[in-house]
Write a structure and sequence with these properties.
The complex is a heterodimer of chains A (121) and B (416).
Chain A lengths: L2 E10 L6 E8 L4 E9 L2 E6 L4 E6 H4 L3 E9 L7 E11 L2 E10 L7 E10 L1
Parallel strand pairs in A: 1-9
Antiparallel strand pairs in A: 2-5, 2-7, 3-4, 3-6, 6-9, 7-8
Chain B lengths: L7 E2 L7 E2 L34 H4 L8 H5 L5 H6 L12 H9 L14 E4 L12 H6 L4 H4 L2 E13 L7 E19 L4 H17 L3 H8 L7 H24 L6 H4 L3 H4 L2 E14 L9 E15 L3 E13 L6 E14 L3 E12 L6 E13 L4 E9 L14 E8 L5
Antiparallel strand pairs in B: 1-2, 3-4, 4-5, 5-6, 6-7, 7-8, 8-9, 9-10, 10-11, 11-12, 12-13
Classes of the chains: A mainly beta (121), B alpha+beta (416).
Amino acid sequence: MGIHIVPTTETYRVHDGAKVTLRITIGEAQIGAWVVAWSSNNVVARGAEPELVDLGFGRDLRGRTLQVVVTAQRGGAGTDRFSRTLAFDGGAEGSREVLDHWEQGDSDDDTVVFTTMIGFQ
Amino acid sequence: MRTRWLIIAILGSMPGAVLADEVPASPAVVPPAPAASGYPAAEADPPAAVVTPATIAAWNDDVSDVDKLRTPSSPAFVILGVSPTEIQHPTTPTDVAIALGGLVRGGDLTVPQNAAIEIAPYWLVPHRKLTFEGYRDEKLLRPLRTLSLSIATVQSQRTDSSNPAAPVMHTDADIGLGFRTMLLQWGAEDACTASIKKNTAIISQGMVFTDAEMREAAGAGNLGSETRDKQIAEINARKKAALEAAISNRKQLQSSKDICGPLAASTTGFSLDLAGALDLRALDSKLTQADTSLAGYGLWTTLSYDASDFSAIAVARIRSQQDAGTMTTGKLLDGGLRGIFKRNTYALSAEGLIRRDLSNGAHATTYKVDLGVEYKMTDVTWLSITFGKGFAFASGDAASWFSLANLQWSFGKPSF
């Protein structure tokens, strides 16, 4: 078993009085789980299926860095592709989707971790 | 009564090595992939031998025939009786074009040797928003999503002796075209899925930065800067190494390859599979209408119910195949039921099959029943005993009840 890491960084502009939400989708019918956290001892939400996560008001987010860690392993799907979509909403730029993907190919890694640092502006 | 005792040693996932002096008439059975229950899932290809009149009688002594009759994963390979060592699994439309391009060379329209390609059309293109739950729960799309197509070729020699003074050797080609799909599935989350969710939740939590690591990364520069990205990569590498070391020492975090077989084999509940294949024979390997004919076909279906403690399987298969040498046709209709009761240290099974030989107007019917028990002697050794009555098309064998007794001594997991 090996782990492949896909690290990314994102920025998202917010309005002070608007609530920001995030939805995480693990695609390609792969099985996985996700964590949304400010740090390992300050977890906002955990899950496996797509779920709307309320991150709070923009004024409380601005200037902070949020971590989203999504891990997937091959299940029963007929593909070695992995993908993760982050769907932001409530910010200055409205809804925005960020897609990242990885293909296992000949790699011995059977687990992929999409780890994203999100800076709120 | 004819009683035989066999001692079969199975090393890991290798086919059984016969240690006794009597060899089963059937080809070696490849043990199925392990399921989360601790027993291999009851999923195995039929014997890798072309059905011919000569081999029909030789199938009599097989054990666990219900598993061999189950829908094969690559019907085209089964209908041709080939077990390619390297099957191309194209993953993109471009890969498919290249793979299929090898089937017909230039303008000669000849069939190459040993082509073996399996394609899952639905998965040739990405499905970025398709969640596992959607894949599992959208029943109407399941046949499409689980559809796989297989193509294989094999060549055989034929001697034309119409002129005894000058016999002519011909090289014919068989092209196998097959499909397989899961028509229906109902059931709860299986152990494989639950285990992966647990694994991935642990890994996700393990990859989250601590407060100290967040400060360490922030100290390297602004978010998105090259220095900060580099620092984040270093921290990720440290955490990954620690996780992989922990995983190697923790049995609850296993590779999905180790705990999960194909989805069809690892789910719990009902599933209904269907597979079929055609064998097109091209005389002298020429792909022309005049030289190409249908030499065989097969249709398989399997209805199974799998739970943590037991499995029940019903199978049906019709298969016809023309012998390349004698040009005679063998045709079999099979139906069977198998039940397996599983525990950590033992398993009990019972199966019954009816076989009707439709070859050359014979219309003979025979049946097979057997009971089996497997007992875990040590972590790596399973004692397996099967009693039953084998198929018997010949009248002299008709009363041979409990004529088959196999003692299997296995290194590894049992063949249930």
